[in-house]
């Protein structure tokens, strides 16, 4: 009775709400509360439809729209492992790992890393690299510049972009951000004389380059003139260059080789496959001016195996290349169209990717024109050296030194610059 009085009081107090039938189990039987009659009746429940909500009730679906970064931060706080019994076990990560992950997610907001310990910076770079932060268009460049400004050659000391002209076109600004490179391979990229990257070679950021490979890049005398202008006039730019590869550039003539005489520290030079007119005169000029001797045996410096991408950003360059390959993958679907064109007797205009071979037919035709400087420890000498004629070489060196001194004195007395040279100087 007390239960029925409490229930009736509750029903009368909330009579304005249409809650529908209420079922109560009592003494093993199911009873339904009949509010219209004002009591509890022993009525079996009828299967009549009723609405859980009133007609004026409205529902608004609110989804959790937090980004993937926040969701990843919430799950990255734990390490999930399995026990021997197969049970899932999780443990909290260290505070250092949590902070490292948070900073790597926001690495583009770092103001400066100058003075920061390089051991921790390397771990931070690896964490950001694992999250592919350096592949992003704008934020990746800004983050990469913070590391290169602070650590220079540690980020990348050697860069090989051989036959990767698509990576150069897509990530040119990122490539230009690397500083203190000692080795740069740009072979088989068809850059030409007017490319922005070749102009960047003369900047102070790449004055540390000691090995430069520019094989098969459609260079001419004008390109060599622009590239050597800072060294010839301002004594800046590629002043520390030791190894230079200019092979397979048919537009380079005897005039362009004259611009290379400003590289006084040059130890190895490859001009095979160029458009030289008087080869014997060029050989004598290189020997007399900068002491380079013609090698009858191919040098190890130009086999393109010593230049590799080395540094913290080694995987970053691979990520760039993979992204470029992913972008050009849809072109594989054009094979069916090519077969259809062949069936109907039409020629297709799809250009295949031109791959660079290390030995060009032009090089074989013109002969091996590789030069080296004797008695240099850093230069890989040929396998065989000529013993005969050593006294003549010494006399030639003495004559070369005497002529160099005469040229220096004459240049100091009569230093004349052309109008084109002054135009180049104004650009720096």
Overview of this protein structure:
This protein has 428 residues and is α/β, with parallel strands linked by helices. It has 16 helices and 12 strands. Among the domains are: 77-153, no CATH class; 156-328 and 366-373 and 420-427, Leucine-rich repeat, LRR (right-handed beta-alpha superhelix). It is elongated, with a radius of gyration of 38 Å.
Order of helices and strands: HEEEHEEHHHEHHEHEHEHEHEHHHEHH
CATH class group of one domain? Alpha Beta
Mind summarizing the main beta sheet?
7 strands, mixed
Strand content: 5-15%
What is the global morphology? elongated
Strand order of the largest sheet: 6-7-8-9-10-12-11
Cα separation of the termini: 102 Å
The count of β-strands is 12
Mean pLDDT, to the nearest integer, reads 76
Radius of gyration: 38 Å
Low-confidence stretches: 1-7, 347-354, 358-365, 381-391, 408-415
Tally of contiguous helical segments: 16
- CATH architecture of one domain, by name, is Alpha-Beta Horseshoe
The CATH topology of one domain is given as: Leucine-rich repeat, LRR (right-handed beta-alpha superhelix)
Helical proportion, percent range: 25-40%
- Class by alpha and beta content: alpha/beta
Family: Belongs to the LRRC42 family.
Protein name: Leucine-rich repeat-containing protein 42
Keywords: Leucine-rich repeat, Repeat
Pfam families: LRR_6
